[in-house]
Amino acid sequence: MKLSKLSRKMLDHHRAAGRTKPFAFAVITLAAVSLIVYSETTMSDVSLHLLPFNKAAVDQQEARMPESVIHPLAVVRSLQLQSIHEEFGEADNKDDPEDHSSYPLVPPLNVTEEERIRWLRENLVNFVILKSDNTTRKFHSRVVRFLGQRCLSQFFMTWISPVSSFGSRELLGIESLFRAHPKGCLVIVSRTMDSRRGRKILKPVTDLGFKVLAATPDLPQLLRKTPAEAWFDDLRKGNKDPGEIPLAQNLSNLIRLAVLYRYGGVYLDTDFVILKDISSLRNCIGAQSVDLVSGNWSRLNNAAMVFDRRHPLLYKFIQEFALTFDGNKWGHNGPYLVSRVVERVKSKTGYRGRFSVMSPMAFYPVGWTHIGGLFKSPENRGDARWVEAKIAQLSRDTYGVHLWNKQSRGLRIEEGSVVARLISDNCVICRSIYSS
């Protein structure tokens, strides 16, 4: 491999690290980077390639990972739900979406399981996400009617945070989705965005003719005749331990699986910048990380999934959620869940050839520990060349860039940075790029 290519990779590493390393560490890094470059080179041309699984690497990651957070900078936040837009009429919520009931209730810390269950029972009335009412019961009919509008592709997102948290960065992500899929339809599953204020936020996009619907979910209906139906019934009765992590955050993991199982299509977190058409993909999930020695995937992620309606792997995901739910461990019901299930079924009859695992370059080309480097403007010619090389690589090999909002939300998008360039090249309205 040419030294110039290695130099670019080294620059990538040093920009992410943000400081000069001693010579000895640089030598070690050079060796590691060689493996990274080799791994990326062997996988960059893969679109629907089934990567093998490396369990030892997963066990090592789990041993190092804190149980309740992703890493020291992680902030426990509400999860985002999928979104759709239509003429809402009677679907307008009379309640102020900024009412306290829109915020996720956080269970008390350092209490026993019995005390958390008692807390859940005492606060069930405040968990609006568990309720079924006249608005939520229209969810299915609204979605079916909306998706019947000659959608060439259908997308789902989730948003369970207050509507005030849905900012310009999320809207720019939606713009990038429609830049790549102008005839697609997007459903945002959300009570807070299914409101006058939510429709006002989405109006710049819908005024251009793009199809977006924000709809309040009806979880009893959505989970009916799925492996999670009985689990959810017990939860609504206050018979389940919600765990220490906000319940809405864990329910978002379940909702994304349920909407794909019922309707089929593409699920995306709202913190993606979409670079190219995803509609050609079928029945796949993305690897977040790969073992550098074996080239096998070591962690999957559920932030981007593409599946047909009632796909058996989705059924297994939902079943695993209900059977192994643990509200105390971050990721247990999300990324770790899909990783566990795929590792178990990948070689079983009935699953072989029915789904694919995509390389990290497809949706997670930059890990959460290095995402900050993509927000920085180039300071010299070397930086500028690195930005150009990174843009070229992502444009060639990546469907969408996950921005890891929990880590990057507080970062400013600097002019000339990789993120700024990607957004400006893939937006349709392109407002507030640098203030997002």
Automatic annotation (TrEMBL):
Domain of life: Eukaryota
One Pfam family from the record: Gly_transf_sug
Domain Alpha 1,4-glycosyltransferase, residue spans: 307-432
Protein name per its UniProtKB record: Lactosylceramide 4-alpha-galactosyltransferase-like
Gene: LOC115756202
